[in-house]
Design a protein that fits this description.
Elements (H helix, E strand, L loop, with lengths): L1 E4 L4 E5 L10 H4 L4 E4 L5 H21 L6
Parallel strand pairs: 1-3
Antiparallel strand pairs: 1-2
């Protein structure tokens, strides 16, 4: 799975059944890749990080994963 997150939205570009090429062959089928887009100022950055945290929390809940 691969997604981009900014201050306004989350755009998921692959489903969980599709691999991405972000961490190399062994990792691509085992991990979720989320890219945090660069904001123009502190406020946009803070909103982007907030959206990223919400999206990752949603995925952890959806796949019944616990952070370690």
């Amino acid at each position: 799975m691969h997604a981009f997150v900014d201050q306004d939205a989350v755009v998921q570009i692959h489903t969980p059944t599709r691999a991405v090429w972000g961490a190399g062959r062994p990792a691509n089928r085992r991990y979720i890749q989320v890219e945090l887009c660069e904001g123009r100022n502190f406020n946009e950055f803070a909103r982007s990080v907030n959206n990223d945290a919400i999206y990752v929390a949603y995925l952890l809940h959806k796949y019944q994963l616990k952070p370690s």
